[in-house]
Specification:
It is built from ten helices and eight strands. With about 350 residues, it is α/β, with parallel strands linked by helices. The chain has three domains: about 50 residues, no CATH class; about 150 residues, Glycosidases (TIM Barrel); about 80 residues, no CATH class. Helix 7 links the parallel strand 5 and strand 6. Helix 5 packs across helix 6 and helix 8 packs parallel to helix 9.
Length: about 350
């Protein structure tokens, strides 16, 4: 019988829009080469004074070699901007925070993720704005999938991208720990260890006969760890079904490599039925040099096995304009089908001019 990982990979490989780009990961591509079907992206949020101002921004991005934007807008604002971008030759994908939603703490406080100390993110978020929903709650699943479907029904939209499709960080990236006065090392501290909502506990107890609150070593219990991977994966699978039914693509912003994603945020992203993935290869978060972009990209490409294309996410605030060519080259040599900029708002005029030159090279 075909296992879950094989099934979801085959589904992702056959899904809409992106599948042809996956071939770039093959060994036949020379290091640093531009794939013939390359695609470049930018995450984008914020406001502009007018629709004309948005159009000018889209035109500027297209001239620099950006093919598609991941736009953090919903509803009428998104409907208004889709045709404006398409007029300038730019695809629009809805960039949507998925599990991190703070708007229902009063209406549905019981929907929020609970840590090993029994405290929910509705009551006390682990970090400033980290109000995460629990993927084990049926109402959360329904709410999240309905949102994906509504977005996918927007005329002219090319796709939906899932962000924060995960649990809260059980371990923060090493460079971010001092910002929050933390010294976690690689330890899973109870305050940051989520998944203990009563719905998750009931699932695990039905499966194993044990309440996860009673585990001596939760981090070392493979079944408990896997259950949390699976609950996030299940929401991605449901989302893929409704988004693909509307003829749209599904992508995700994820942690930089499959191993890091599983360890830090319970994200099993190489098993998801996606059309594309954008790992956030923010080298400075992990105290790595720019060359780590190639290493992390290669690890993701290897794990995917050609299921769908990978676009390396570059953190612009830590890349001077003169470093952009190096970062793009590392992404290409690692096997990426293109890059994704984080984010458009961090790009200066010098960045855009440099990028235009780099992406024009063949």
């Amino acid at each position: 019988m075909m296992d879950r990982r094989t099934f979801t990979r085959l589904l992702g490989a056959g899904a809409l829009g992106f599948a042809g780009s996956a071939a770039f990961g093959s060994a036949t591509q020379r290091a640093g080469a531009v794939p013939p079907d390359a695609k470049n992206w930018a995450w984008m949020r914020g406001e502009r004074d007018s629709l004309d101002a948005w159009k000018r921004q889209f035109a500027k991005m297209r001239a620099a070699g950006i093919d598609a934007v991941l736009l953090q807008k919903e509803g009428d604002a998104l409907r208004r901007l889709v045709p404006a971008a398409r007029t300038e030759g730019v695809e629009v994908h809805a960039w949507v925070p998925t599990m991190m939603r703070g708007e229902m703490t009063e209406e549905h406080p019981d929907w929020y993720a609970v840590n090993r100390k029994g405290v929910s993110t509705a009551e006390e978020p682990p970090l400033d704005y980290y109000r995460f929903l629990s993927p084990c709650v049926e109402g959360v699943q329904q709410y999240t999938v309905r949102r994906m479907k509504r977005l996918a029904q927007i005329e002219g939209l090319s796709g939906v991208q899932l962000d924060y499709i995960r649990f809260p960080d059980v371990i923060l990236p090493v460079a971010l720990q001092p910002k929050y006065d933390l010294d976690q090392g690689n330890r899973e501290m109870a305050r940051f260890d989520y998944g203990y909502h009563r719905a998750c506990r009931a699932m695990f107890e039905e499966q194993t006969g044990t309440d996860p609150m009673e585990l001596d070593d939760p981090a070392g219990n493979e079944e408990w760890v896997q259950l949390r991977y699976d609950r996030i994966t299940a929401i991605v699978e449901q989302g893929a079904e409704v988004v693909h039914a509307e003829g749209k693509t599904l992508s995700a912003a994820v942690f930089p490599t499959p191993d890091i994603a599983r360890k830090l945020v319970r994200q099993d992203w190489d098993a998801w039925p996606l059309d594309a993935v954008m790992p956030m290869i923010y080298h400075n978060f992990y105290e790595k040099p720019v060359s780590w972009i190639e290493t992390a990209t290669r690890r993701g490409i290897r794990a995917l096995g050609g299921a769908f294309p990978l676009y390396s996410g570059l953190f612009v605030p830590e890349l001077a304009p003169e470093q952009l060519p190096e970062a793009v080259a590392y992404a290409r040599s690692g096997g990426a089908s293109g890059i994704t900029l984080s984010s458009a708002s961090a790009m200066t005029d010098r960045h855009w001019r440099t990028l235009e030159t780099v992406l024009a090279e063949t």
